[in-house]
Each structure stands twice: as C-alpha cells, then as structure tokens.
Amino acid sequence: MNKKAVSFGLEDILAGKIRYNEPMSKHTSWRIGGPAELLVEPQGLTDLQLAIHYAGIKKMPVTIIGNGTNLLVSDSGIKGMVIKIGSGLAGIKVKDFTITVGAGAKLARVASTAQQAGLGGLEFMAGIPGTLGGAIVMNAGANGSTISDFLQDIIVVDDHGEVISMKKEEVSFGYRTSSLQELPFIVVEATLKCFSRDSQEIKDRIKTLWEKRKASQPLDYPNAGSVFRNPPGDSAGRLIETAGGKALRVGDAQVSEKHANFIVNLGRATAVDVLSLISKVQDLVYNKHGIELSPEVRVLGDVFRRR
Ligand SMILES: Cc1cc2nc3c(=O)[nH]c(=O)nc-3n(C[C@H](O)[C@H](O)[C@H](O)COP(=O)(O)OP(=O)(O)OC[C@H]3O[C@@H](n4cnc5c(N)ncnc54)[C@H](O)[C@@H]3O)c2cc1C
C-alpha cells in the first residue's frame, strides 16, 4: 500500500475565492490597507466552516470583515486569514413581518427588499454602505434608528465552526457597539422584525434620507463614514469644526471640508496618515472643549509598523 501522505491545500476544499497577499485597500472604503496574507470569501456556511477548520489546523489568526466600510487597516497588512463575508452568504427571505438576511447582504439591498414587501422601519439602512453582519456587530444606525431596534435573532458560527442561534436578548447593544465585538463569533444570518408600511411611503422616505446624506457627506472621496462617536448630547462634527479642525491634513488624509467628522483619502493616504490625523483632531478638540473623542472606526492589523 502506498503510504505517501496526501496533503490538501485550501484550493482543494473551498468553493469560494482564495487570494494570497491581497491588498486590503481593495476591500476597504477608505482604499487604505496593506496585504492580507490570505483572504477567503466563503461561498456558503459549509465553506465558512471549512475555512475556520483550516485556519485552526494551520494555527492562523482569523480576521473577519464585511464590506470594509468601517475599517482602518494597517499599512503593513493583516497576518493570517482574512475571511470576507459577502455575496456567498447573502440570501434574503421575507415571511410575514420578518426578513431573514444573510450576513453578507448589503444594507441597501435589505432596505429595498423590505420596501418592495411593504415592510417599514429599515429605511435608515439604505444609505449605510455596509453588510448586515458588520451592521449588527457595530450596531449601525442613522436618523434615530439602529439595527438592534429591529433584531429578533441571530445565527453565528464560533471559532470551532459550531453554529449557534442567539436571541437578541443574549447580545448587548450600545451606541455603535455590541458585545459581539468581544466574542470570537462570526455573524452568518439574522432575522429582523418590521412593521407594515405603504411601499410608496417607504420609497419616499428612503429618497429623502439619501438626499440628506448626499448634501452633507463627502461621498466623492474614499472615506469610512463618521470617524468618531458622538459624545453624549453633542456631535463630534460640531466639536471638530468649532475647534478649527476642518480641512486639517496629514499627507493625503484630510478632515472633510463638507463634514468635519469624516476623514477623506485625497489619493495616496496611508493608515499612518489617518492615525496621526485622528490624534491631531483628538488633541485639538480636547484643548478647545475638554472632551476626549473616541474613534468609531475599527483598526485592524499592526498599526505601528510602517511599510
Ligand atoms: C459613506 C459612509 C456612510 C456611513 N454611514 C453610516 C451611518 O449612517 N451609520 C452607521 O452606523 N455607520 C455608517 N457607516 C459605517 C459603516 O458602513 C457601518 O459601520 C457598517 O455597519 C459596517 O459594515 P461593514 O460590512 O462594512 O463592516 P466592516 O467595516 O467590514 O467591519 C466592521 C466590524 O465588524 C466586524 N464584522 C464585519 N462583518 C462581520 C460578521 N459577519 N461577523 C462578525 N464580525 C463582523 C469586523 O471585524 C469589524 O470589527 C458609514 C460608512 C461610510 C463609508
């Protein structure tokens, strides 16, 4: 009997896309970030579980991303495996007043499916460019609503690939945060509970909210939405603007002239540029108002190592 060992590569077991040394700048809305050692995009739940097992066997650290719209990735990239939850886990099903959504589905698609089904409440999602999974982990929200207001239950996969169903009550949510940020769980699906609303009325609300965004946000430049959390009872944008922070610049990273809580990439900004601009803005606001701004964007990779 031939006892030659048979070794399987990731390509032999995964149906989804696999990329080596993949620039993370291609996967972040800021267009910033060095290479991921290995980036996989699972085609479904089994594929995701296989990727987790593979990373476990190879003792690789695992990093999860959605659409990369709230991320600052280090210029030196990310070690180990980055799992991008996207179109392979993006099914949407409507039943009565609920909508069950795969974590990789874009929020705009969720909002438009709800609109067509006459399900109200999710209009605020239409202008947020993330995925459902990223939105749950960040407890994304706008215009007085957050995703946790509508959550009924969540399905996650743990770091052993086990599927776990959770009721909304088992997760704690705060302003742009959730207990999932501290747990080794990957969100794969969630069910949201909506209410009945006229489809045309939903469409009109979505249009109005979009126009408001276009008028106030610098959508022509790569950005990651609001950089800082709003302190209680105030807005980070107002604090930055009144401290003289508008248009402050480090390299190609600039505080937007249109909205002071946005940092835009004028072309070749690096993560180091953005981080030093963040700390300049924090100093400015602290010196003027005595308030410490805390970042809302999530930082991935080793930020102190330069290219
Ligand atoms: C122009 C613009 C406007 C924005 N407006 C808003 C707004 O109005 N309100 C708002 O709240 N945000 C806003 N954002 C920020 C961002 O879109 C949201 O935070 C969004 O929910 C992030 O989703 P994502 O899929 O891009 O997640 P990513 O940025 O890829 O990841 C965010 C975090 O979630 C984790 N994560 C992602 N997917 C999963 C998953 N399936 N399982 C476990 N962990 C996961 C990541 O590890 C990371 O910690 C805006 C961003 C931009 C660029």
Describe this structure in a few short sentences.
The chain has 307 residues and is an alpha+beta fold.
Spell out the blueprint of helices and strands:
Layout: H1 10-13, E1 17-23, E2 35-41, H2 45-57, E3 62-65, E4 71-73, E5 78-84, E6 92-95, E7 98-102, H3 107-116, E8 119-120, H4 132-138, E9 141-142, E10 145-146, E11 151-157, E12 163-167, E13 173-174, E14 177-178, E15 186-193, E16 195-196, H5 199-216, H6 236-242, E17 249-250, E18 253-255, E19 263-265, H7 271-289, E20 298-300
Parallel strand pairs: 2-5, 3-5, 4-20
Antiparallel strand pairs: 1-2, 6-7, 7-15, 8-16, 9-10, 11-12, 11-15, 13-14, 17-18, 18-19
Bound molecules: flavin-adenine dinucleotide.
Structural overview:
- It is globular, with a radius of gyration of 20 Å.
- It is of the alpha+beta class and 307 residues long.
- The protein contains 7 helices and 20 strands.
- The longest helix is centred in the C-terminal third of the chain and has 19 residues, at 271-289.
- It folds into 3 domains: 10-87, Uridine Diphospho-n-acetylenolpyruvylglucosamine Reductase, domain 2 (2-Layer Sandwich); 89-215, 2-Layer Sandwich (Uridine Diphospho-n-acetylenolpyruvylglucosamine Reductase, domain 3); 219-300, UDP-N-acetylenolpyruvoylglucosamine reductase, C-terminal domain (Uridine Diphospho-n-acetylenolpyruvylglucosamine Reductase, domain 1, Alpha-Beta Complex), CATH 3.90.78.10.
- The strands form 7 sheets. The protein has a 5-stranded antiparallel β-sheet with strand order 6-7-15-11-12, covered by helices on one side. A 4-stranded mixed β-sheet has the order 1-2-5-3, covered by helices on one side. A 3-stranded antiparallel β-sheet has the order 17-18-19.
- Bound molecules: flavin-adenine dinucleotide (FAD).
- Residues 29, 64-71, 85, 103, 128-131, 133-135, 137-138, 140-142, 176, 186-187, 217, 219, 223-225, 298 line the site of flavin-adenine dinucleotide (FAD).
- Flavin-adenine dinucleotide binds next to strand 3, helix 4, strand 9 and strand 15.
